[in-house]
DNA sequence: TTCCAGGGCGGGC
DNA sequence: GCCCGCCATGGA
């Protein structure tokens, strides 16, 4: 991979397995939006960045070489060989072969731990467009104005402190409804106990899930999402409605397996590749509407 | 109008 | 351990 400056933008040359649509629409993130020109603009780490694919190159706008080297290379997981991961999954069965072929440009983003906690609490019993709307409104109301890009204002994700100290009305204003008390409680707990990403570094997935489910509004599925997207626990396998459908369609026809058992089954089946398998399957299932009318 | 969305919680058994 | 009703909101 080479980093080149061109017209004030940064161009990443020779990047494989990187398709913005696949990355930003496979359900892992809520602060990336499609622009009219097909590019995606996102807010991460108090920074606004625009990403597009031009021929074989990844073009990054509104950023600089320092940030690319210090932040975005890591965030986009550029150092990882996703080709190898897809090959291993493809060799397992025809379904994974098809799914990895369909979402061939997916990469799992390394997102901020605490933002994942709050965002996925909001995700419970909610629709993805609504989750995005709520997260953006919450940032507008309780975060900081960090940048204006293409005439649009962008706001940072609210800090732990601002959420912990916010009135409940200020939180419910983001259409977060019955999840608002969960968010307030959890933000307070994170602040009071000074819980940080590094506290999870040496924990197994089960230990991580056990610790995370102590948060209000965090059950098995949300914990797995936080573990996968915010803590780089790649053996996590979040089972949501879509994953349940696609698992039943592909592997567990007419079994009527409970969610905890399906989680255990999948973790054992996919092992260290569980998180990747989950993302390819989720994207495939959701884009194709697998098992929706049953 | 009714159903559903990247579920969790508290209750019951 | 499993199942049930409930939880707001908006889009289809």
TrEMBL record:
One of its GO terms (biological process) is nucleotide-excision repair. It catalyses: 2'-deoxyribonucleotide-(2'-deoxyribose 5'-phosphate)-2'-deoxyribonucleotide-DNA = a 3'-end 2'-deoxyribonucleotide-(2,3-dehydro-2,3-deoxyribose 5'-phosphate)-DNA + a 5'-end 5'-phospho-2'-deoxyribonucleoside-DNA + H(+). InterPro entries: DNA_glycosylase, HhH-GPD_domain, HhH_base_excis_C, OGG_N, Oxidative_DNA_repair_enzyme. Residues 122-286 form the HhH-GPD domain. Pfam families: HhH-GPD, OGG_N. Its EC number is 4.2.99.18. Keywords: DNA damage, DNA repair, Glycosidase, Hydrolase, Lyase, Multifunctional enzyme. It comes from the Bacteria. GO terms for molecular function: class I DNA-(apurinic or apyrimidinic site) endonuclease activity; damaged DNA binding; oxidized purine nucleobase lesion DNA N-glycosylase activity. Belongs to the type-1 OGG1 family. This is DNA-(apurinic or apyrimidinic site) lyase.
């Amino acid at each position: 991979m080479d980093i080149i400056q061109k017209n004030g933008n940064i161009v990443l040359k020779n990047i494989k397995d990187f398709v913005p649509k696949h990355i930003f629409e496979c359900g892992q993130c809520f602060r990336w939006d499609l622009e009219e020109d097909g590019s995606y603009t996102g807010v991460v780490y108090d920074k606004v960045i625009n990403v597009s694919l031009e021929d074989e190159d990844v073009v990054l706008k509104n950023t600089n070489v320092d940030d690319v080297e210090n932040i975005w290379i890591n965030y986009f997981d550029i150092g990882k060989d996703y080709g190898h991961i897809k090959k291993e999954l493809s060799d397992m069965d025809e379904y994974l072969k098809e799914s990895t072929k369909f979402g061939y440009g997916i990469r799992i983003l390394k997102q901020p731990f605490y933002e994942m906690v709050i965002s996925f609490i909001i995700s419970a019993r909610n629709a993805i467009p609504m989750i995005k709307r709520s997260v953006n409104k919450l940032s507008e109301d309780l975060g900081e104005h960090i940048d204006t890009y293409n005439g649009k204002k962008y706001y940072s994700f609210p800090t732990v402190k601002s959420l912990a100290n916010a009135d409940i009305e200020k939180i419910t204003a983001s259409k977060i409804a019955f999840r608002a008390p969960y968010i307030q409680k959890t933000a307070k707990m994170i602040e009071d106990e000074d819980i940080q990403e590094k506290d999870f570094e040496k924990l197994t997935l089960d230990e991580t899930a056990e610790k995370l489910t102590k948060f209000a509004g965090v059950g098995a599925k949300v914990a797995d999402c936080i573990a996968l997207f915010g803590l780089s626990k790649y053996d996590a396998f979040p089972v949501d409605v879509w994953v349940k459908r696609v698992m039943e369609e592909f592997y567990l026809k007419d079994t009527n397996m409970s969610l905890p058992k399906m989680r255990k089954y999948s973790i054992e089946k996919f092992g260290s590749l569980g998180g990747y398998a989950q993302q390819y399957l989720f994207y495939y299932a959701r884009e194709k509407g697998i098992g929706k009318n049953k």
